[in-house]
Amino acid sequence: MEFNGNHLIELGYRPAKWFKEAIAYINENKLDENQIKEYLEQFKQPELIPLHETAKDFVINIRAEHESENDNVEKVINTMNVLMKTPTLVAGAIMPDACPTGPVGQIPVGGVVVAKNAIHPGFHSADICCSVMLTDFGKADPKEVLDAAHSVTHFGYGGRPRGEQMEMSQELMDAFRANDFLNDEKLISIARSHMGTQGDGNHFLFVGISKNTGNTMLVTHHGSRAPGAALYDKGMKVANRFRMENSPETLRENAWIPYDSKEGKSYWEALKLIRTWTKENHISIHDATLNKLGIEKEDRYWNEHNFVFKDGDLFYHAKGATPLDDKFMPDITGPRLIPLNMAEPVLIVKGTTNERNLGFAPHGAGRNFSRSQHKKSLAHKTTEEIFAEETKGLDVRFFTNEIDISELPTAYKSAKNVRAQIEEYGLCEVLDEVMPYGCIMAGDVQKNAPWKRKKKFRKA
């Protein structure tokens, strides 16, 4: 009878990538029982890494301001109590805009967790380096800025069509090719076509007026698009392989890549390259708008709020939290940005690390309810009525021309409450506010999605 994987498992070995090679060697050389045991000594596996017996401490910078928020806050705390049993974690915090994102134990939006010598792809998710950039347009007319931006930006699925693509730097393409995770010509082609695009969901292009200076400001919000999503998929596969070998009790979404492994070093470099791509993406849209208007920028700053930040052997995973400490941002260019909703100002803030914030602040105003729950709560009104009420006095546009009520102000937590809790917990200091003039969002991309139009055509 041929030796197989079940025999290895019976001998106490956990499934691993070396199984195939070992089984072939044993069968080809017809090893006896003693020879098999001697041969398998080289594959001796380390002790499994157990979950923490009790959850590691985390700071709670959130409380329910209204009865409708009780369920949200309770779920966030419950999920953190499970999450903080993950073996690599040493500290954590939740912000005033926190909200759950999936099964219990999965990092919530508005969560920060600190892992020792480990990178968790599930903690940054597919939207790697979701970030915000501000450019000061001086005394430019806000309508002209919004019109110009509308003519050059791109929302929705996929990349830009040929002939309309924005340039990706040759230096960055070369760096992609030198990385084990990003060295894929198809991925590089996608990265080129997605340059200058903003996606969908809660990503936006916002124009407003500085409360301090009266200058017109352009703010964009988006992540790394398809290149980041591709890296996330690859990272999760590698992390899950390590999880199965070393800590199968750990939840799949909390799997990690050990930083001291070859894969860990390569993944960390890939994350930094995706960060560079995302920053280039913001700059391409801002510079195209400046060029359209024929003016020079007066100032610019940028920060991510969904990323992994390294400090020695500690990896700070921020899932929707704004980095304040300068050590997290090697290319620091100014204060940080916290957008709230389209009808509220974008906050310009600064801050330092303290015992409550771990060096981070909120990233906006999170959701109290899911998109579908929010839509059901407004079912007694027409879409047009809701839009008129919630965007009164603002120039709000949807790139697809289809209103998405799940992105209107009432879809989010009270901006007033989030700001009050920022002050209450001493998370950061507000320096200025960019008062809203208008914004552009993708809109309801599902309503007339390309694949739906194709289905209708086939039926016709």
From TrEMBL:
GO BP annotations listed: DNA repair; RNA processing; RNA repair
Binding-site residues for GMP, renumbered to this chain: 339-342, 363-366
Statement: the UniProt record of this protein carries the keyword Metal-binding: yes
EC number: 6.5.1.8
Annotated residues for binding of Mn(2+) 1: 203
Keyword Manganese applies: yes
GO MF term set: DNA ligase activity; GTP binding; manganese ion binding; RNA ligase (GTP) activity
Residues bound to Mn(2+) 2: 221
Cofactor remark: Binds 2 manganese ions per subunit.
Coiled coil: none
InterPro entries given in the database record: RtcB, RtcB-like, RtcB-like_sf
Catalytic machinery residues: 363 (gmp-histidine intermediate)
Protein name, UniProt field: 3'-phosphate/5'-hydroxy nucleic acid ligase
